[in-house]
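Dissemination and training. As part of the outreach component of the grant, students in the summer workshop were shown how a complex can be specified as a set of sequence lines and then modelled as a single object. The example used during the hands-on session is reproduced here so that future cohorts can follow it. Participants entered these lines:
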Amino acid sequence: MRSIGNKSIPLVIGLGNIYRGDDGLGILVINALRSNHPGIADYLTEEGDATRLIDLWEGRDVIVIDAVKTSRQQSGRIHQINSIEELSGNTEIQFSTHSIDLSEVIGLSTLIEKPPGSLFFIGVEGSVWEMGAIISDKVKSQIPEVVEMTISHIRNSQKS
Amino acid sequence: MKPLSDNNRIIKFDYIARVEGEGSFYVKLKDDKVKESRLKIFEPPRFFEGFLQGRSFREVPDITARICGICPVAYQMSSVHAMEKICGYQASPVIRSLRRLLYCGEWIESHALHTFMLHAPDFLGYPDAITMAKDHKEWVQKALILKKTGNDIVNILGGREIHPINVKVGGFYRYPQKSDFEELRTRLKTAQEIAYDATKWMSGLEFPDFEYDYEFVAMSHPSEYPMNEGRLISNKGLDIDVREYEKHFTEEHMYYSTTLHTLLDKVRVIFTGPLARFNLNFEQLSKDSKKLAREIKLSPNCKNPFKSLLVRMVETFYACGEAIDIIDKYKYPEKIEDHVEPKSGKAEAVTEAPRGILFHRYEIDKKGIIKNARIVAPTSHNQRIIESDLRRLVEKFHHLNDQLLTERCEQSVRNYDPCISCSTHFLKVEIDRE
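and obtained this result:
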């Protein structure tokens, strides 16, 4: 079974598909975090069905990173959501192209009483989604910023 | 939505949730007759097939697994079978059974996700799974248990739940010990009970009165319900070896979309997936699965695509039982020949992905370097029939108001569990009644 061990540290999840253009953002950010910041969080990638995460994030401080779409179509723009409540009320962001999106999976987790302890979401607007395409420059250039936001959030959480 | 005139209606579906991927459907009604319909799936150029060129034949299972987050096993299985055919390698019985077990895992997980979370809300009148879960919390919890059992099979055999990394051309990198399956077997028994109860529950739902004389296409094997091997057959006379696939199946480019519609013998529209498998292979189901189907009055001559929901549940029940049988018979292979040397050549393979037949064809050189590749996903096979169904559906249910008709069309698209992200993103649907 896939298990993520240390519940005293945050769980950072990158959603997406490395072979599908900007959708690979979440995976690339996790790769960077694993290389440069090992040990401060558990890192996980999920490439298809987010319902698989329900048993893994129950009660944990969770950070989710994903490529997103909005009606504004501003490729490379970073979005931040600070709580489950804020995520549930979101109407602007289309979270992912996967069968059940993140907000639905969070909703399901809550209904069956297995929600994350807390949620921090970082999304980067993408524009290239074709299978086999590479990540766009605008989205790729935001990877260091997303890594920094993630680390800052973890450190601030540890202080509080 | 545009306002209605006396004779004409325009309905727009801007977005269909609960399908994998993106695309759109447009239909124009005049005098309650469909004048124009276009299913657009924004399939990109076939980057992925080009991406495979120049790669080693051994990399193919890992690369193709990433085409779809929901059915990576299907992509791995079609690819390894094609490569092994080229190289003249015959998998041993133990490898063959473990591959079947892996496929059982994918069917269970994919069908559980689709039936409970994506399709059942349509039949129960809920906009989404969360709303449904408020009234049917117990079923959602059971669905997650069922789905997790499928995930667990893939995890044990594939090395992880998604994009299994343990599959190789020739077999597996690591073979599980018999003891690895002990807990899983218990969970499979529970999952099988859930699948049984859920099938009974879903059989009580209301299914739209909608039948058509489809040409069902599925694989067929003389002694087992098809997953990895068999001939391609239909209820209208097709019976071919998969080597003949490209002689019979062609892809037609539609002017309104970058996608390709698959046709049989240039004109025949086909229907693949669970309902086709069930209708064409009913006798190969287990005794208990056939009994369950009969109990819910699901006959192997079912022509109502909405009842795919029930067939998926029967297949889920079957896959749980099949997985238990495989585990019970499994013996750890102390010595196994699973190294494959490359040979130049070309070969085709078809396997039964949860949502329908998945075709792969590769040509490699003597060093095992891929010269070219071709992949036809289940959703490409079903695209034309999805469009045809929508057209017929809109005419049959034209009396419904725009919202209800829109919902009925979305429900119809989901009959096919289209995995559009195999090629693209969100699905937008637009219906115009002038």
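Chain B touches chain A through 48 residues (CB under 8 Å). Students were then asked to discuss how this feature might be tested experimentally.
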